[in-house]
Each structure stands twice: as structure tokens, then as C-alpha cells.
């Protein structure tokens, strides 16, 4: 039986839940309350020494780090394939995920931290600069979509991995944007998927 140690609003947990839903895999949720530091208890740290969510257990297998968990689910449960068979396309999927996670991280975290402050303490130049940087980075995804429905053509791990980040960019007021019309339509398609609606 699969168990997911989960904090509902965590984007890292959400990307795993999208893959579990897309693959129709039954699983049990074990809530972890980050506000009470339950992820730092000795028992939890035995499963994930980083002290973060999610952790996924699958019988005796214990995994952490959401992108690695999703790769595991893809390999262990291939009936609903979310990665292309072609090695070059598979490599491209990993490149796009890395781009959306690693390359976005600096302006994304800068904006997130600034928006968490009291309104009077926020720096508008920092907010504007981070938003401008993120819009420039999003252009790559706008171009990748071209006339495709999803980032690799068919729905894939790339879409599952990146949707929690995209929905937060929506919450930050970056998406939708008139300069990124394909991404706007893509977001509508993604949010209509049952796996994303259930988050």
C-alpha cells in the first residue's frame, strides 16, 4: 500500500498527488503538520533526513524529494505512461522540469518571500524585478507549447511536476499574461484535469 506523508498546501506534495491521480493509484494520506514542526520529529527524520514533505512509502520502499518520487512512480507503475519512450524526448522532459524548477527558483523565491511580508514592508522594485524575470523565463514554455496541448505534446511528468509552480505564479499575478497566450490556454486545460482539480 502506498502512503503519502502530506501537507495539503505544499507544492512538492501536490506534484506527487497529480501523478498518483493520473496513474489511478490508490494511496493513503498521512497528514504532516508543518506548522507544528511534525516534519522535524525523530521518527519522521528517519524517513526523510531533510525534514521536508513529501515522503512516499510503497511497502518497504521509502522515498523523499517529489521529482524523484514521480520518476519512481513512473518506472514502478508504467501502465499509464507519463514519460516518452524515446531517450531524446525523455531527456527533454527532464531538461524542461529542471528549467521550471532550478532556473525559476531564484526569482520565484525572491517574489514569494517579498509577498509574505506585511504590505508596508514590501519592496515594490524587488517585486517588479522578480515578476519581470519570471515573465522572461516563462517565454521558453510559451515557445515550447507552440500548437501542442501540453509541454511535450501529450500530458507528461513535466506538466505534473510544474503545475504547482504555475498555479502559484497565477496567485502571484504573473499568469495569465497577454504576452503569454498559449500558456494561458494551457493553464485552463491543466486546471480542468481531474488530477489538478482535486488539489
Keyword list:
199 residues, Glutaredoxin, 9% strand, Glutathione S-transferase Yfyf (Class Pi), Chain A, domain 2, 4-stranded mixed beta sheet, alpha+beta
Structure description:
The chain has 199 residues and is of the alpha+beta class. The protein has two domains: 2-76, Glutaredoxin, CATH 3.40.30.10; 87-197, Up-down Bundle (Glutathione S-transferase Yfyf (Class Pi), Chain A, domain 2), CATH 1.20.1050.10. It has helices spanning 11-22, 42-47, 66-76, 87-115, 124-145, 157-171, 181-192, 194-197; strands spanning 2-6, 27-31, 55-58, 61-64. The protein has a four-stranded mixed β-sheet with strand order 2-1-3-4, with helices on one face.
Question: What does this entry show, briefly?
Answer:
The chain is α+β, with helices and mostly antiparallel strands and 199 residues long. Helix content is 56%, strand content 9%.
SSE inventory with pairings:
Elements: E1 2-6, H1 11-22, E2 27-31, H2 42-47, E3 55-58, E4 61-64, H3 66-76, H4 87-115, H5 124-145, H6 157-171, H7 181-192, H8 194-197
Helix pairs in contact: 1-3, 1-6, 4-5, 4-6, 5-7
Amino acid at each position: 500500500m502506498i502512503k503519502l506523508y502530506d501537507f495539503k498546501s505544499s507544492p512538492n506534495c501536490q506534484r506527487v498527488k497529480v501523478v498518483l491521480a493520473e496513474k489511478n493509484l490508490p494511496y493513503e494520506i498521512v497528514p504532516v503538520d508543518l506548522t507544528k514542526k511534525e516534519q522535524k520529529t525523530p521518527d519522521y527524520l528517519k524517513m526523510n533526513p531533510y525534514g521536508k514533505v513529501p515522503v512516499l512509502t510503497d511497502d518497504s520502499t521509502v522515498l523523499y524529494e517529489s521529482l524523484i518520487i514521480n520518476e519512481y512512480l513512473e518506472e514502478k507503475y508504467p501502465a499509464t505512461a507519463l514519460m516518452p519512450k524515446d531517450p531524446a524526448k525523455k531527456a527533454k522532459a527532464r531538461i524542461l522540469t529542471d528549467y521550471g524548477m532550478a532556473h525559476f527558483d531564484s526569482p520565484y523565491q525572491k517574489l514569494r518571500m517579498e509577498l509574505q511580508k506585511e504590505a508596508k514592508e514590501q519592496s515594490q522594485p524587488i517585486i517588479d524585478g522578480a515578476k519581470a524575470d519570471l515573465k522572461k523565463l516563462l517565454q521558453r514554455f510559451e515557445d515550447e507549447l507552440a500548437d501542442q496541448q501540453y509541454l511535450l505534446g501529450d500530458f507528461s511528468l513535466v506538466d505534473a511536476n510544474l503545475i504547482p509552480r504555475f498555479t502559484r505564479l497565477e496567485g502571484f499575478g504573473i499568469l495569465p499574461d497577454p504576452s503569454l497566450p498559449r500558456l494561458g490556454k494551457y493553464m485552463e486545460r491543466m486546471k480542468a484535469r481531474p488530477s489538478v482539480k482535486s488539489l
